[in-house]
């Protein structure tokens, strides 16, 4: 038996919810990685930087910041990159 239109919309909504959850989980993991890198480099991470990172959801931007965190020379330099 073919699913009803309502069931098709429900199924699609569930799929979108799962995709969103996976993306959010991946973003959270990248933020945790960036914070770990920064903590290893600079011992502490200001709350403002933590809050700004936690607000980000764009995976490409988080990947770029993780890459930058590995090479930056100061927290000020990282903060400047975070503002862009």
Features:
84 residues; mainly alpha; rod-shaped
**Tally of individual helices:** 4
Span from first to last CA?
53 Å
How does the major sheet shape up? Answer: none
Oligomer: single chain
Number of strands: 0
Which descriptor suits the 3D outline? rod-shaped
Encode the helix/strand succession as letters: HHHH
The Cα radius of gyration reads 18 Å
Helical residues, percent: over 70%
Structural class designation? mainly alpha
Can you describe this structure?
With 84 residues, this protein is mainly α. It has four helices and no strands.
Q: What is the compact description of this entry?
A:
By secondary structure, the chain is mainly α.
Give a topology summary.
Blueprint lengths: L4 H38 L4 H9 L3 H13 L3 H9 L1
Helix pairs in contact: 1-3
């Amino acid at each position: 038996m073919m699913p009803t239109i309502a069931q098709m919309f429900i199924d699609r909504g569930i799929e979108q919810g799962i995709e969103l959850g996976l993306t959010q989980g991946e973003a959270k993991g990248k933020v945790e990685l960036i914070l770990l890198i920064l903590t290893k480099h600079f011992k502490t991470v200001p709350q403002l930087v933590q809050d700004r990172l936690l607000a980000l959801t764009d995976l490409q931007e988080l990947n770029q910041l993780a890459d930058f965190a590995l090479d930056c020379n100061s927290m000020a330099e990282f903060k400047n990159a975070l503002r862009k």
